[in-house]
Amino acid sequence: MNSLKTTGIIIRRANTGEADRILTIFTKEYGKLSVLAKGVRKISSKLAGNLEPYSVAEFIFQEGKSLETVISAVTIDHSYTLSDDCKNFAKAHYFGELIDKLVPENEKHSEIFEIFKAAIIRLKRGDNDFLLPYFELKMLDKLGYSPQVYYCVKCRHKLLADKNYFSFSDGGVACEECRSAGFLEISVEAIKILRLIIESDVSLVDRLNIDLKLREEIENITDNYIKYILDRNLRSKQIMNKL
């Protein structure tokens, strides 16, 4: 049987059998995989300590008929400091659930993996209020759901520094003349920030300093846009918002 070696982050675990687990791992080389970890719920398991959620690890899988089996795992970056902070752990869980719902299995997305890994590492350094909308927008961008923030989604004319409106159903910003019922007014400053996020790397979250009102406007737009795409509220987001 062939073996696969990859860097990955566990985003979901489910118990099966007497001592096994099925792990959902988002990997750099192979995308999202469901794999079997045999005997990891036993006290004597040598693998268990390296199979913590949101830890970055090097994995080796043995190919099987239905599921790959984990035969080796070596942690690169532990999640222990993250698990000590309920709010940040809840954010990591939300990031993982978002990937689980939006990314199909066995579909390589190395750029999203790097964004996810960078977000997890920054969470361990401490909370950053802007990391959440950054991750959401960058992920949507890499999956082809990036909102249109340069041209009106209706008439295709270049957006002016005037009254503009976000259309969740059309996937972007509409001008004053093209607005319809249900469109959400969006400030010129928020449009600029959305453009900046889409164009920048993760270091932006450490450099950007915006006021609370603008941050809440951007969070409201990204949150409702994701709800529209998924046609549902994610349970992890609801838990995170209560903390």
Radius of gyration: 20 Å
CATH class of the largest domain: Mainly Beta
The CATH architecture classification of the largest domain is: Beta Barrel
Coarse shape: elongated
CATH fold type of the largest domain: OB fold (Dihydrolipoamide Acetyltransferase, E2P)
Mean pLDDT: 91
Query: Which stretches are low in confidence, meaning pLDDT under 50 for 5 or more residues running?
Result: none
How many strands? Answer: 8
What topology, given as strand order, has the largest sheet?
1-2-3-5-4
Estimate what percentage of residues fall within beta strands. 15-25%
Q: How far apart, in Å, are the first and last alpha carbons?
A: 46 Å
Give the helix tally: 8
Outline the structure in words:
- The chain is of the alpha+beta class and 243 residues long.
- It has 2 domains: 127 residues, OB fold (Dihydrolipoamide Acetyltransferase, E2P); 100 residues, no CATH class.
- Helices cover 38% and strands 23% of the residues.
- It contains 8 helices and 8 strands; from the N terminus they run E-E-E-E-E-H-H-H-H-E-E-E-H-H-H-H.
- The strands form 2 sheets. It has a 5-stranded mixed beta barrel. The chain has a 3-stranded antiparallel beta sheet with strand order 7-6-8.
- Strand 1 and strand 2 form a beta hairpin.
- Helix 2 runs antiparallel to helix 3 and helix 2 packs antiparallel against helix 8.
- The longest helix is centred in the last third of the chain and has 19 residues.
